[in-house]
Design a protein that fits this description.
Blueprint (H helix, E strand, L loop, with lengths): L4 E5 L10 H9 L4 E2 L16 H13 L5 E6 L1 H10 L8 E5 L7 H15 L6 H11 L2 H10 L6 H7 L5 H7 L4 E6 L8 H7 L3 E6 L6 H4 L1 H16 L14 E2 L3
Parallel strand pairs: 1-2, 1-3, 3-4, 4-5, 5-6, 6-7
Helix pairs in contact: 1-11, 2-3, 3-8, 4-7, 8-9
GO molecular function, one term: hydrolase activity
Protein name: Alpha/beta fold hydrolase
Keywords: Hydrolase
Length: about 250
């Protein structure tokens, strides 16, 4: 049995520090992990964001791994993880895509882009609004983790502009490894989760009770359990591929 390496892809405005509790859990379990900052975020906040450059960062991290590979992403990171997995020649062994089960196109994306543009025109670039929302909806421990790498509100417009050309359902159809879709019960980004599941060649949908969009931050213990289960599944997988399946949604107990 060879232990997989996990590559963690962070969400919009955040940085690798959003994964601190996952990195700690993986380290405690003896599982190697990488969590790069994407362009326009964290240590790379001065680099312009683009989808191609972000895929390059994921590709570089993936190619540094010589054995089995699990890639996990949340929100923007989930969309990018799927977009990368559908195109790379460095095939992962599984993908965990959290909080990204709404197709990033159409009126919803247009409205989100408009809101981001308006926020960007605020005198402080939206920093105070971001802080207020974090205090309102994110637990103290999660805010502390996010603060380590900092929040970059100014990148939102560039990210959302880039997402216009991302077709997540098409990406799911192109991925031939297990994909676990993980959504909080109260997540506003789960509107197309059934369609996404049906697009998977080998998919599983997991709903986390009492969790919002930032499921890995608000329910880290439950999320870590799911991530570790996927890693264990990959580690114990037989050399031959098992028949593809589409699991019914599973609610994770508290």
């Amino acid at each position: 049995m060879e232990v997989p390496t996990v590559v963690l892809v962070h969400g919009i405005r955040a940085s690798r520090s959003m994964w601190l509790r996952q990195l700690a859990a993986l380290e405690a379990a003896g599982i190697p992990a990488l969590a790069p900052d994407l362009p326009g975020h964290g240590a790379r906040r001065d680099e312009p964001f683009s989808i191609p450059r972000s895929l390059d960062v994921i590709e570089d991290a993936a190619r540094s791994v010589t054995g089995p590979l699990v890639v996990a992403g949340l929100s923007m990171g989930g969309y990018l993880a799927l977009h990368w997995a559908a195109r790379t020649e460095r095939r992962p062994d599984a993908v965990l895509a959290a909080s990204c089960s709404t197709q990033p196109q159409g009126l919803a994306l247009a409205a989100y882009r408009r809101v981001a543009w308006l926020i960007g025109r605020l005198p402080d670039g939206g920093a105070a609004l971001n802080d207020f929302m974090a205090r309102r909806f994110v637990p103290d421990h999660a805010r502390e983790d996010l603060a380590v790498g900092g929040m970059t509100v100014s990148v939102m417009s560039d990210v959302l502009s880039g997402m216009v050309d991302v077709d997540t359902r098409a990406d799911l159809c192109a991925i031939d490894v297990p994909v676990w879709l993980v959504n909080g019960r109260w997540d506003h980004f789960r509107g197309h989760e059934r369609r996404f599941l049906s697009s998977c060649n080998d998919g599983r949908l997991i709903i986390v009770p009492r969790a919002s969009h930032l499921v890995s931050l608000v329910r880290p213990v439950v999320f870590n359990r799911i991530l570790l289960e996927l890693v264990d599944t990959v580690a114990h997988a037989a050399p031959a591929r098992v028949p593809p399946r589409q699991d019914v949604p599973a609610a994770v107990a508290a």
